[in-house]
């Protein structure tokens, strides 16, 4: 007999593992009526003696004494909707977000990325920061030593040192620093019809200049010989070294891709040139145009191939995730430990929120807002996870 009733309580007979070690009573489980199930789930999951364990452990604890149809489904749903678990438990899934596509870049200075590095010790010339600008196509780098990393300094460097020298790019990639988000920078880009793409918060790998920053800092450190105030002494020289070094992806120097000839460090180098065959100006122009087309085609293919290879490797351990406008999500907590405030980040919630998806800003980035419609920044999907409620769970 699989069922029995005692003192108005319904029991179901459930075969147990290792029956030789179980008494007959252990096989009979209380059939829990629907109104009492939620309270029981709370006791077996939320109480400190339950410990907010996962589905497997919670389910089998319930199974020791209880039964109801589709009990495991209810356990899954209850834990999925648990706010404490959403806040404090790390996401065990593969990292979210596949590598997205960039705009199709065909020529030098069509897309640039920019970033500040510093603060460094104030140099003998009063500098503390460096603005680094990198051309995505040619990998050409321009550096500006600065006394202060302000929006005004940024605008002056970009307008006078980039737009009016190399031409205005179609796209600017930058992070969410206050200078980059300033009205002054946004206005100068608007005036020159240049689009701004902001990277996600806490996701520096989306900015190509981050790699250049590491190279520059390593080169600078190699020449200061212990006196860190001299960090900017060789800044122009190491920038020249980057521009005149053959790049692994393009298989050419950034200088050559921009100017069609290699950089000459010394004026005397012009005397060592092999005389060119007699050729008229029109033929020379046509010849160089053909050469440029071939070179740009080659660089485009190399950039495409490198990105496809990187995407293949990057996507191996990642999964595609999409959110919709208006959907609620949790975002990863980036708070740092602070001993003076008796705060340790290891004991803090792993996620905070929930927040609302305001809009999609990129292939894997979304702008969040709170319940008062206040923006909470742009975040990569790897730092987000869906919020579930008992209404939509």
From TrEMBL:
<dbReference type="InterPro" id="IPR012337">
    <property type="entry name" value="RNaseH-like_sf"/>
</dbReference>
<dbReference type="GO" id="GO:0003676">
    <property type="term" value="F:nucleic acid binding"/>
</dbReference>
<dbReference type="Pfam" id="PF17921">
    <property type="entry name" value="Integrase_H2C2"/>
</dbReference>
<protein>
    <recommendedName>
        <fullName>RNA-directed DNA polymerase</fullName>
        <ecNumber>2.7.7.49</ecNumber>
    </recommendedName>
</protein>
<dbReference type="InterPro" id="IPR041588">
    <property type="entry name" value="Integrase_H2C2"/>
</dbReference>
<dbReference type="InterPro" id="IPR001584">
    <property type="entry name" value="Integrase_cat-core"/>
</dbReference>
<dbReference type="GO" id="GO:0003964">
    <property type="term" value="F:RNA-directed DNA polymerase activity"/>
</dbReference>
<dbReference type="InterPro" id="IPR050951">
    <property type="entry name" value="Retrovirus_Pol_polyprotein"/>
</dbReference>
<feature type="domain" description="Integrase catalytic">
    <location>
        <begin position="99"/>
        <end position="262"/>
    </location>
</feature>
<dbReference type="InterPro" id="IPR036397">
    <property type="entry name" value="RNaseH_sf"/>
</dbReference>
<dbReference type="Pfam" id="PF00665">
    <property type="entry name" value="rve"/>
</dbReference>
<dbReference type="GO" id="GO:0015074">
    <property type="term" value="P:DNA integration"/>
</dbReference>
């Amino acid at each position: 007999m699989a069922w029995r009733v005692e003192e108005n309580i319904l029991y179901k007979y459930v075969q147990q593992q290792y029956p030789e070690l179980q008494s007959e009573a252990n096989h009979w489980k209380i059939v829990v009526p629907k109104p009492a199930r939620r309270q029981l789930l709370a006791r077996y999951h939320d109480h400190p003696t339950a410990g907010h364990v996962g589905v497997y452990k919670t389910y089998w604890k319930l199974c020791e004494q209880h039964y109801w149809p589709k009990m495991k489904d209810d356990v899954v749903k209850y834990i999925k909707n648990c706010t404490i678990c959403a806040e404090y438990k790390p996401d065990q899934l593969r990292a979210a977000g596949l590598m997205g596509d960039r705009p199709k870049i065909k020529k030098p200075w069509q897309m640039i990325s920019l970033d500040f590095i510093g603060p460094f010790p104030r140099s003998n010339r009063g500098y503390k920061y460096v603005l680094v600008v990198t051309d995505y196509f040619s990998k050409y780098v321009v550096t500006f030593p600065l006394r202060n990393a302000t929006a005004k300094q940024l605008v002056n460097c970009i307008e006078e040192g980039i737009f009016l020298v190399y031409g205005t790019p179609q796209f600017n990639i930058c992070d969410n620093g206050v200078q980059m988000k300033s009205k002054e920078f946004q206005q100068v880009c608007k005036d020159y019809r240049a689009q701004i793409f902001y990277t996600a918060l806490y996701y520096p790998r989306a900015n190509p200049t981050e790699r250049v920053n590491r190279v520059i800092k390593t080169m600078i450190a190699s020449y200061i010989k212990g006196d860190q105030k001299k960090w900017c002494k060789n800044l122009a020289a190491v920038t020249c070294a980057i521009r005149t070094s053959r790049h692994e992806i393009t298989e050419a120097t950034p200088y050559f891709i921009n100017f069609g000839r290699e950089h000459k460090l010394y004026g005397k180098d012009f005397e060592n040139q092999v005389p060119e065959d007699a050729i008229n100006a029109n033929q020379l122009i046509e010849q160089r145009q053909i050469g440029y087309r071939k070179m740009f085609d080659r660089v485009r293919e190399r950039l495409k191939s490198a990105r496809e290879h990187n995407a293949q490797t990057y996507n191996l351990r990642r999964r595609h995730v999409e959110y919709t406008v208006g959907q609620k999500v949790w975002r990863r907590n980036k708070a740092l430990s602070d001993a003076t405030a008796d705060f340790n980040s290891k004991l803090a919630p792993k996620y905070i929120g929930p927040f609302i998806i305001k809009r999609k800003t990129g292939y894997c980035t979304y702008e969040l807002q709170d319940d008062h419609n206040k923006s909470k920044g742009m975040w990569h999907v790897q730092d987000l996870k869906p919020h579930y409620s008992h209404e939509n769970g």
